[in-house]
Design a protein that fits this description.
By secondary structure, the chain is an alpha/beta fold. It has one domain: Rossmann fold. The protein is 44% helix and 15% strand. The protein is built from eight helices and seven strands. The longest helix has 27 residues. The protein is globular and about 50 Å long. The structure holds nicotinamide-adenine-dinucleotide. The site of nicotinamide-adenine-dinucleotide has 29 residues, from helix 2 and helix 5.
């Protein structure tokens, strides 16, 4: 009885999910979680090698997955991702925009091209993906669900990561605006804001001093593990469990945004 109840709430059998940035550390864990819940997962990203490794891992665990190469800063590349996915699975039930880039440079020294790289890689890429996939979902019989990835820096800006913090604050704002826009079109749009999880894009910014500061300001006094995001991902994306949730920003951060010592 309880397994049946949980399957009804969170089971994703027969549904498809695209994870852009499924090639990365957090996106990879999300791909694994979605596949374990029964979804057919399209691992999408720029690195074919990493994407294919993730697909192989999912298949070895008994899940269903495929890789599609995409550059989320390119409209044409995203349109091609949409068209290829529609050919493979008819409905695109879920999309996670989990790509991201970072940079840590003193404010007065930020070169224009680095500013644009971070704003484009986080905000513009998320906007383009939403603009392409939300209307596609709205015309599907079962609608769809989009999960953008923000950050605790959307709420509390982080020193030396100016463009990144600004881009993530804008991703949260865009998510809420799109949630309103699509609320009656059967498309839900939410944003997950992780705390600190060591990964590729933040390796360079996690120096000794910053790690000490983060630990001091994280009530749980540790980094997150990528798989600790999966529960929130399933809740926000699930057609049944999340059906009245839209425009929400959910923080998974060990309490980082909850308080100041
Ligand atoms: N790791 C953390 O502590 C943390 C905290 C808050 C938010 N985030 C966010 O989570 C998301 C995932 O980050 P991560 O920590 O797993 O980093 P990561 O570097 O491991 O993964 C990011 C992935 O996105 C891919 N990518 C980057 N630009 C792309 C593009 N234009 N098109 C397609 N793919 C692209 C990269 O190749 C990489 O595989 C990012 O949006 C990041 O800002 C991470």
């Amino acid at each position: 009885m309880s397994a049946e109840f949980l399957t009804k709430l969170f089971g994703l059998d027969g549904q498809s999910a695209i994870v852009i940035g499924g090639t990365g550390v957090l996106g990879g864990a999300m791909c694994d979680g979605l596949a374990a819940a029964g979804a057919f997962v399209i691992v999408a990203g720029r690195s074919r090698e990493r994407g294919e490794k993730r697909v192989q891992k999912i298949r070895e665990a008994g899940g269903k997955a495929d890789f599609i190469e995409v550059d989320a800063t390119s409209r044409d590349s995203l349109l091609s991702l949409r068209d290829q996915t529609v050919k493979m699975c008819t409905n695109i039930d879920m999309l996670i925009n989990c790509m991201g880039v970072n940079s840590a440079i003193p404010y007065e020294e930020i070169p224009d091209d680095d500013w644009h790289r971070v704003i484009d890689g986080n905000l513009t890429a998320t906007h383009l993906a939403c603009q392409i996939f939300a209307p596609q979902m709205a015309q599907q019989p079962n609608g769809g669900s989009i999960l953008n990835i923000g950050s605790v820096t959307a709420h509390l800006p982080l020193s030396r990561v100016f463009a990144y913090s600004a881009s993530k604050a804008a991703v949260v704002n865009l998510t809420k605006n799109l949630a309103r826009e699509y609320a009656t079109k059967n498309v839900r749009v939410n944003v997950l804001c992780p705390g600190f999880f060591p990964a590729e894009q933040n390796r360079a910014i996690l120096d000794k001093e910053r790690v000490e500061n983060i630990m001091r300001q994280t009530p749980m006094a540790r980094f997150g593990e990528p798989e600790e995001l999966v529960g929130a991902v399933l809740l926000l994306l699930s057609r049944e469990a999340g059906r009245f949730i839209t425009g929400s920003a959910v923080y998974v951060d060990g309490g980082f945004t909850a308080m100041r010592f």
